[in-house]
Amino acid sequence: MPMLLIQGHFQATGAQPDGDTVHFTPDDPSEWALVGGPGGRRIEHSATGRGKLRLDAIDALETHYGADRVHQPLQFAHAARDELLSRLGFTDVQHRPDETVTATTPEAAPGFILTRGADVHGRCVALAASGTPPGTSGLELDVDESLLRATVNHHMVVSGLAYPTFYRSLFTSLRAELTTVSRQARESGQGLWSSDVTTTGAKVTGLSSLTDDMVILPKLFRRLVDYLKLGNGSLACFPAFLAGIQDRYSVLSTGERRSGLHHVVEVTDGQTVRMTNPAEDLVFDDA
User: Fold this and answer.
1) Which segments of the chain belong to CATH 2.40.50.90?
2) C-alpha angle with apex 119: 215 to 249, nearest 5 degrees?
3) Which of 16, 139, 211, 277 could form a disulfide with 99 if both were Cys (CB 3.0 to 4.6 A apart)?
4) 22 vs 284: CA distance, rounded Å
5) What DSSP designation does 30 have?
6) What pLDDT, in 10s, does the model give residues 66-88?
7) Residue 223 CA to chain centroid, in angstroms?
8) Is the peptide bond before 239 cis (omega within 30 degrees of 0)?
9) pTM for this prediction
């Protein structure tokens, strides 16, 4: 799978990284213009080249979602954030109560990213790794399973601190590798999998059950939070809410193309919600 390689350094100070987002500055900031090719989405970055990464193919528990900054159980949300920063080479990370990083050692950690484009928020969607890059910055190279295993994306799934969350632009062989290691992490109860109730059922009695108790797929969490903000006490209308959002995806096990998560979400007794398919069985259209 050809991906653009960019060498640079990661930073966390002044930002609020979580288990799947972090800042990155290319050694040559002009290389941001190469991302996505002609006509592709542009990366939003500062005058010095500092931009935000959205780590490809993974989704970690939320530390501060939406205007109300709601979070998922912080035991795993913070564990994912801390593991990501550690894996990228940071130690002694200091935070304010609002999740903002005030200091790290070192201030910037060298590494590289592998990318095919940006998301709708101007973030670079990328595989990321610390250390010396395996090729020349600013050029494409083929990314295979061996190179994927060197990335933090792969490590976060192996450690059970992030869910696999696939989009159509990810090559099939890389998706298969992440599926294998995510299932191994689930079967061994690694990380968040010891508490995950995404497919077994989460009884939602209010927002606090989502923020403090239930470990579920972050995409499902975000949809539930947005639904509850409308003032709905019961989940009986949640499937209709999901139908209206029209997330578009494929179900790998059946080959079906779907619009709306209501096709893979069940609600019983007006309070208990579960996904009928595991995260790795879904491939979403690129946002």
Assistant:
1) 2-191
2) 60
3) 16
4) 22
5) G
6) 989 999 999 999 999 999 999 99
7) 15
8) no
9) 0.96
